[in-house]
Design brief:
Blueprint (H helix, E strand, L loop, with lengths): L3 H10 L6 E5 L12 E2 L9 E2 L3 E4 L1 H4 L8 E9 L13 E5 L11 E4 L3 E5 L7 E4 L9 E2 L10 E3 L7 H9 L4 E5 L3 E7 L3 E2 L10 E2 L2 H12 L2 E8 L3 H8 L7 E5 L10 H8 L1 E4 L4 E2 L5 E5 L2 E6 L3 H19 L9 E6 L3 E2 L5 E10 L5 E5 L9 H5 L2 E5 L5 E2 L4 E6 L8
Parallel strand pairs: 5-6, 13-16, 13-17, 14-15, 17-21, 19-24, 22-25
Antiparallel strand pairs: 1-12, 2-11, 3-10, 4-6, 4-7, 5-9, 8-9, 18-20, 20-21, 22-28, 23-27, 24-25, 24-26, 26-28
Helix pairs in contact: 1-7, 4-7, 5-6
The chain binds adenosine monophosphate and magnesium ion.
Length: 413
């Protein structure tokens, strides 16, 4: 039996980052950028107005006040999207809209709220009274404020979020080079399994693991491929496991405990390489890891919660590493346990639990339901895995414990 940390390290040492691919801008959401994104223009491409108002010469209005307004003649009306041609000379102003280019001669913009029509409506040919001074360059957004032509606006290794997509769009990249999403094969094993649409007959249960796992793969940034159910025979299991090299990673559930029909480990040893098969943890001690034709292979235990916890601890970091993320694990927080807990001393426990934040900012934690590994409800109602260390057989209420948050994606620990 090896420790959780040893198992995690052994897994990650076998995992490499996948190659990049070019995808449409929106498809890059949530992925890791593989190369810098360089701008083909200055953004913004021209000096423009940050306000609806009047483009003016700063020196003309620097003494303007409510009591003694500066009156300027309006020589142009500039909407966004139009290149102005008229020069603003001393004593003149141009009506200007937000985002419109600053006309020649003007250097500042007075908000419309700080003006009043003097003659007419403030249109071309009318005069406008400026009621407050501006500072030089006030309300002008300068050319190249976001990024200069030839500069990088996004850097390789950054995760693409909505703002990054907006930046890429503004610098003319309709496609981005991002790390490929790992293609993850999912195989369930067990003669007792029927699909979700079926009502289980005598001795049968529905296959829930293929679904919970596929959902975990999606959340981790992978692409699930559910290959189906292997019967509890070596031939049926081999037939599906042999397909591992078609994928970046393969996960099976069940068939790795000590039962008479638990053939996954045997088939793995026959067609691939076994790295480890038991980890000192609960739920789910029989966590199997190896490679088949070079593809990393995870034989997770069959009990639904053991499957999910095994995925969380071993498979998720592997998928994230393949997808190019540098932060591979969830954040951990220290919380005060609210109840006594007994455990076996020889293994680490991961209790399905709920963290609550108190008024003082500190966390408390309690289990979120029945801890049988066959049951999923506590996992659903919880928001963390409470990690209770090896070596302890009793953890008293009031103890400080480490919790792995499942409701937050990235962490540093
Ligand atoms: P095993 O490791 O194959 O002995 O499976 C352990 C337990 O998990 C058994 O009670 C199985 O019926 C159950 N189990 C195995 N595979 C699945 C699955 N895909 N969906 C739900 N339960 C499963
Ligand atoms: Mg089984």
């Amino acid at each position: 039996m090896i420790s959780v940390e040893e198992a995690q390290q052994q897994v990650l040492s076998r995992i490499s980052v996948l190659e990049p691919e070019r995808v449409g801008l929106l498809d890059s959401l949530g992925r890791v950028l593989a190369e810098d994104v360089v701008s083909d223009i200055d953004v913004s491409p021209f000096d423009n107005s940050a306000m609806d108002g009047y483009a003016v010469r700063y020196v003309d209005v620097r003494d303007a006040s409510e009591d003694s307004p500066t009156v300027l003649r309006v020589v142009d009306h500039i909407p966004a999207g139009v290149q102005p041609e008229i020069v603003v000379n001393p004593g003149q102003a141009a009506r200007i809209m937000t985002g419109a280019p600053i006309p020649m001669g003007a250097d500042s913009v007075v908000m419309v709220e700080h003006t009043r029509p003097d003659t007419g409506e403030g249109g071309i040919g009318d005069t406008v009274a400026v009621l407050r001074p501006v500072t030089l360059g006030e309300n002008v957004r300068s050319r190249g404020e976001e990024v200069r032509e030839g500069q990088s606006v996004l850097l390789a290794g950054e995760t693409i979020g909505p703002a990054a997509i907006g930046l890429a769009a503004s610098v003319g990249h309709a496609e981005l080079a991002v790390r490929r999403r790992p293609r993850v094969a999912i195989v369930s094993t067990g003669d007792e399994l029927v699909d979700v649409a079926e009502k289980p007959g005598p001795g049968k249960i529905r296959n829930s693991n293929s679904y919970s796992l596929a959902a975990q793969v999606v959340q981790a940034g992978g692409e699930p491929h559910v290959l189906g159910v292997a019967r509890d025979t070596e031939d049926s299991t081999r037939e599906l496991l042999e397909r591992a090299p078609e994928f970046d990673l393969m996960i099976t559930t069940g068939g790795v405990s000590m039962g008479d029909f638990d053939v996954v480990k045997k088939v793995l040893e026959e067609i691939g390489e076994l790295e480890f098969w038991r980890v000192a943890m609960r739920p789910g001690g029989p966590q199997t890891f190896g490679t088949i034709g070079g593809t990393p292979f995870f034989g997770l235990p069959g009990n639904p919660t053991s499957t999910m916890v095994g995925f969380e601890l071993f498979v998720r970091p592997a998928i994230r590493k393949m997808a190019g993320f540098t932060s591979l694990v969830r954040p951990r927080v220290v919380a005060t346990l609210t109840h006594d807990t007994r455990k076996k001393a020889d293994r680490r426990y991961f209790l399905r639990s709920r963290l609550t934040r108190g008024a003082d900012g500190g966390y408390t934690v309690a289990v979120s339901g029945n801890q049988s590994s066959a049951l999923l409800t506590a996992m659903h109602r919880g928001n963390c895995l409470m990690s209770l260390p090896e070596g302890e057989s009793f953890v008293a209420a009031g103890s400080e414990v480490i919790c792995i948050r499942l409701d937050v994606e990235e962490g540093t620990a």
